[in-house]
């Protein structure tokens, strides 16, 4: 049976994308709140995300998504109001609920209902909430102090909330939705849901019924009663996409102070948080910090009482003195609020406009830019040929200038498109805190994940490709690298292990690092395992240095672990990790020290679509070597070539450099080589350097990467191809697999 939802085909991608954004927000903040329980902003963010997600699900008619989100919203509301404490049990249930929500989201993608039965989870969650809230209430009643029982203040009644006094908490919101939005009703719905999470909506246009009818909305207006500041409300609403203009103001005619009844003491304005007046009084040395703490403690028992009333009842301040100080406080608050409004208005006028677009369009745009780059290269070649043949010709000079201008525009266009395709690696990194938390609990380990460089950007295609290798490395670090707390303690280490995940740009490349402070890789066991499996001989193992022994970890099926786990297997996969990195024209390096830990470093180009290369010629083929792997080039003479253990090498700056002849590696039929016309391109492969021997150097050129296609398939030593400016095809070299191929050859 097909899942029936009240949503158009155009709106569906937006709904799915924003659902995933809210789920990521929930998951990330849940893991954070486990360490930062007292952070009210995190709790509020969790509540808002659940509240908005529930509203979105309700709008499209996904009842099961609404039901499961509702229990999450109830939990966060309980924590927010102090009726429920943050515990591991609550976090576990919330994360289980998020996993369930992702399955429900997949139901929408696959148009298949009932992929998962959520009722047991909803029931379990509801029972947990009811039991925990009741227990918390009993504990609160039993522990309520009597220190303020003498105060002449009545607790707040359970009646309907009173009308806002002085209008200070009435805000007027006007939001203009982008005219080209295909989901304007959804944006209005998000605005409504966000405001409901911030306070009470007194008036709204369009009405909720009109919004739910999915009629187009251009302007959304509302009157909101809230204790939140204008800046807080603006910050929340600014997160909603396609809102082009946002105006938030207080009702000016009601901002003026209304005289208080004689029997009532002065109050702090509602635009301030409960402790703001107290902070002001302490900063002016009117009361002491200890007196403020006593008053705040008493205020908790009488939620209807204002701080000023408490201070008078406790005899800390007289009513007259309080009124005088509050008048000055109100004046300062108004001045500050006006400054905030002015700054916010200026900021909103210059705010960048954003628009969502499909990935397919970006890919098509990148392909067109690639074709343009190919034609630019061809024009450059034709220009050079014309200039050589027609020196001083006026027409040639004009053509040359035009070609140069086209080249500059093409470069700018390429840069802009590349920036559009760039995404912060936080899109991947944000998944790991949850994963490490779950793995640590499953393996009975204490693990801290330290993440840095989340803002580092790389091409979205690379982002997708690097996800699985990073997951494998982090899982290995927790499962195989970090020791159990007792073992670490016995070794003189902290009980809690550390896994570091980082990213940064370096010389036009992106460098990703996964490091742990665990037990390291036992190279003796690694060599013994390789010998046992017949991958190397005992003599080869004995001759291996530390670096070569560590690289054995990338051999298929090799491991030093004595047992299989369901977390990261038994070493199977590190060879796949390396192959995936090589396929991306990247490099993976590993360093380890027994008892100290292991570090994996992945070096990648910034994009897979267009790469800078060094073009070389080996008759009759032109090869493109990715510049990211090239260190330098040298002229190679016959006298400089030597042989060690039957293999050709050359000595450069007193360092032995193994040589790889491309002509021999690819079985290119050539006449006897004239060594006087050979060049060597020195490249980096993992931790080693090699020299690729070629006939001639053509020059540097940016090339558009093209797949070899299904008919050709995989070619050892070649990753892909490129069309050059003269229309010829160049083969793009996969340096690491080429070196392995040459060694085997």
TrEMBL record:
Record field: transmembrane: none
One BP term from GO: chemotaxis
Protein name: Chemotaxis protein CheA
InterPro entries in UniProt: Bact_Chemotaxis_CheA, CheA-like_dim, CheA-like_homodim_sf, CheA-like_P2_sf, CheA_P2-bd, CheW-like_dom_sf, CheW-lke_dom, CheY-binding_CheA
CheW-like domain boundaries: 610-744
Documented EC number(s): 2.7.13.3
GO molecular function, a single term: ATP binding
Domain of life per record: Bacteria
Positions of post-translational Phosphohistidine modification: 51
UniProt keywords, alphabetically: ATP-binding, Chemotaxis, Cytoplasm, Kinase, Nucleotide-binding, Phosphoprotein, Transferase, Two-component regulatory system
Domain HPt, first and last residues per copy: 4-108
Chief localisation class: cytoplasm
Native source organism of the sequence: Ornatilinea apprima
Pfam families linked to this entry: CheW, H-kinase_dim, HATPase_c, Hpt, P2
Catalytic activity: ATP + protein L-histidine = ADP + protein N-phospho-L-histidine
Main EC class the enzyme belongs to: transferase
UniProt subcellular location: Cytoplasm
Domain Histidine kinase, residue spans: 367-608
Region Disordered, annotated ranges: 249-271
GO CC aspect terms: cytoplasm
Function of the molecule: Involved in the transmission of sensory signals from the chemoreceptors to the flagellar motors. CheA is autophosphorylated; it can transfer its phosphate group to either CheB or CheY.
Keyword Cytoplasm: yes
